[in-house]
Design brief:
heterotrimer; A mainly alpha; B alpha+beta; C mainly alpha; B: 5-stranded mixed β-sheet; two-stranded antiparallel ribbon; C: mainly alpha; 4 helices; flat
């Protein structure tokens, strides 16, 4: 297969991110973003979270979720701008901002979780 | 049931107009009439200048596709009574240039269809003495759904991506490519992939899914395209991981 | 049809697709909502990384994060994000069989089974996350 286009790679990452985001983010957001701040349930203790984040498997899993979800956003948002707002002629800037932003975010995630 | 219904039909006479207008016709309603019957009634009894395409009037030729109340439909398969009390808006198929009235130009699709090589590609033909290419029912089932396409172009009309980028190869052509890719007798997969694993090919599709919704023959072009994306992506991975692999 | 010789070719009527094409029908609109959900996926990642950052700096930072997370605008944003992320999940699982045609023993696995498998995995993953965060 020619390397003429990198679209297959972008699509694979988009798909991986879609699966990771769909499987994990609803529960995470419901608990940490809605239920705890609204007082429906008690916040997890600092000790509990520190214990979780000390586990290398948890850190790796969380990194994979974050990085792939960001790349999922990058690919999907890029096409939303192309098609939804008809900005395809700005494709170079859009690609740079979307994938660049996702890579930057993944770097931050790597710094926080893998180092 | 009311016995009359109003049709609002798009008219475009390029020799007189610069943009389409609408003309209203009142037609009788019969229980078994389809939109095509109503249009033929207009042409026969009210206004002979109305131009539109049709042929088999039974949903197999793909000629009579038009936009009815904003939705792409085969007018021979769409009942008039479903739109009672009306009015019913009949326009040409969207996303195509309008030649006249309800007639659109399909040249773009015809060129793209040739581009996907919709025929059996063999590295070497079997000699006649070896007999036919045999295919089991299971092998037939692998591609049969995609062979049901009647080239009616409702899917192109429903696809917003085609509307935005006319270079997009489009649902029917991609489904027809899959019809041959999945045919056990075909060996043209790699050749087609050069054409189709491109931005104008499958990668332009964002799985809106409207093509599958409007298809009158249940071809599921959206499904064909997503499957092809996966296949093309895995092929890409193989090419990166094992670049020495021959075909 | 040879375009050069067709007399009225330049007079074929071509309608430009409007910038607001996605508002012209309900399915198109839902499609764009589905695509826009990716923005809220990205926000959720940012939110999670802020939490991780808080925890990694100690108990005080974590408390500060909790305080920040309970501000009305953050809660509102997270409620909206939750709705969009759920919409993403449901549409994703329902569309998965289109790309994933699995053949077992020469017969095609019904799409409904793949969808069901996805939802099952979702429930399991969510239960695991809930236990991890809230269990003792």
């Amino acid at each position: 297969m020619s390397t003429r286009t990198n679209e297959p790679l972008a699509w694979l990452l988009f798909s991986a991110g879609g699966v990771m985001a769909a499987m994990t983010l609803p529960a995470l957001l419901l608990i940490l973003g809605v239920a705890v701040p609204l007082g429906w349930i008690a916040a997890p203790t600092y000790e509990r979270l520190a214990w979780l984040l000390a586990n290398p498997i948890v850190r790796l899993a969380l990194f994979v979720v974050c990085a792939t979800s960001l790349l999922h956003w990058a690919h999907r948002f890029r096409y939303t701008l192309y098609d939804g707002l008809q900005l395809k002629h700005l494709h170079e800037g859009i690609n740079f901002a979307c994938y660049g932003g996702a890579i930057l975010g993944s770097a931050v995630a790597a710094y926080l979780l893998l180092l | 049931m009311a016995d009359r219904i109003t049709l609002q039909v798009a008219r475009y006479r390029p020799e007189e107009q610069s943009a389409p207008t609408f003309q209203e016709y009142e037609v009788p309603v019969q229980k078994d009439w389809v939109i095509l019957d109503a249009l033929n009634h207009v042409k026969d009894r009210i206004d002979g200048s109305l131009s539109f395409r049709w042929s088999c009037r039974m949903g197999v030729c793909g000629s009579c596709g038009m936009t009815v109340n904003g939705v792409p439909k085969l007018t021979c398969a769409t009942f008039l009574t479903d739109y009672a009390p009306g009015p019913v808006r009949v326009e040409p198929l969207r996303n195509f240039p309008v030649i006249r009235d309800l007639i659109v130009d399909l040249g773009d699709f015809m060129r793209k269809l040739v581009g996907v090589k919709p025929w059996l590609v063999r590295k070497e033909e079997k000699p006649i003495s070896e007999g036919e290419y045999r295919q089991s029912p299971a092998e037939l089932d692998a591609y049969k759904q995609f062979s049901m396409c009647i080239n009616c172009m409702l899917c192109y009309s429903a696809c917003p991506i085609y509307g935005l980028d006319p270079k997009f190869v489009g649902p029917a052509a991609l489904a027809l490519a899959q019809r041959y890719n999945l045919d056990s007798r075909d060996q043209g997969g790699p050749e087609r992939m050069e054409e189709l694993s491109t931005h104008e090919g499958v990668w332009g599709c964002t799985f809106v899914g409207e093509c599958t919704k409007v298809c009158p023959k249940n071809v599921d072009p959206a499904g064909a395209i997503q499957r092809y994306k996966l296949e093309a992506a895995l092929d890409w991975v193989k090419g990166v991981v094992m670049p020495w692999g021959g075909r | 049809m040879n375009e050069a010789t067709t007399p009225f070719h330049s007079k074929w009527y071509r309608e430009r697709t409007s910038t607001y094409w996605w508002m012209s029908s309900w399915p198109y609109f839902l499609f764009i909502v589905r695509e826009v959900s990716s923005v809220f996926v990205a926000w959720t990642v940012v939110f999670l990384l802020k939490l991780v950052n808080g925890v990694s700096h100690g108990a005080d930072w974590y408390q500060a994060f909790l305080h920040w997370a309970s501000q009305p605008w953050v809660i509102a944003l997270n409620v909206a994000s939750l709705l969009f992320v759920l919409f993403h999940a449901v549409t994703w699982f329902n569309l998965a069989p289109a790309a994933l045609v699995v053949n077992v023993g020469g017969r095609r696995v019904p799409g409904a089974l793949i969808v069901g498998g996805n939802y099952g995995a979702w429930v399991a993953a969510s239960a695991l996350i809930a236990w991890a965060l809230l269990g003792s």
